[in-house]
Amino acid sequence: KSENYASRAAYKLKELQRKFGIIGPGEHVLEIGSSPGGWTKYIAEVTGKSVVAVDISPMKYMDNVIFLKADIMGDQLIDRIRDTLKVLGKESFQAVLSDAMVKTSGNGSIDHSASYMIGNRVMEIANIFLSTGGSCVFKHFQGDMTQDLFRKWKDSYRFSRITNTRASRHGSREIYMIFKGKL
Ligand code: SAM
Question: 13 CA to middle of ligand 1, Å?
Answer without folding.
Answer: 14
